[in-house]
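To whoever is on call:

I kicked off a structure prediction for a single chain this morning and the downstream step that reads the tokens threw a length-mismatch warning. I double-checked the sequence; it's 126 residues and nothing unusual in it as far as I can see. Pasting both halves so you can look.
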Amino acid sequence: QVQLVESGGGLVQAGGSLRLSCATSGRTFSNYALGWFRQAPGKERAFVAAITWNGRNTFYADSVKGRFTISRDNDKNTVYLQMNSLKPEDTAVYYCAACLVGVLTDIFAENEYPYWGQGTQVTVSS
């Protein structure tokens, strides 16, 4: 079992930045690919970014490419999402998720991730 706890959300003006963190515990952190997803009001949860177990490969939704950066620190068991040039449409609850590397087949797919945090609210005002 893997426990994930997000932090760093809040209210920011358009054009501003936030850095989300997701601290994990319970299993060997480096065995897991990690992803960030978000759910805006009235919408389904959607993929934002993901990172492989060693941090060498990262993946982004088109809507956040060039603005968001995912990274991980395997010594601190933490994954980060640096969000720059925020837009009102980035407003959502942001979730981090984990999947054991050996069973992951589609890093973009929400249903591939069995472990989820509780979410952190990000609100971007115009």
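Update from on-call: the warning came from a stale cache, not from the record. Cleared it. Sanity check on the structure: The chain has a mean pLDDT of 94.
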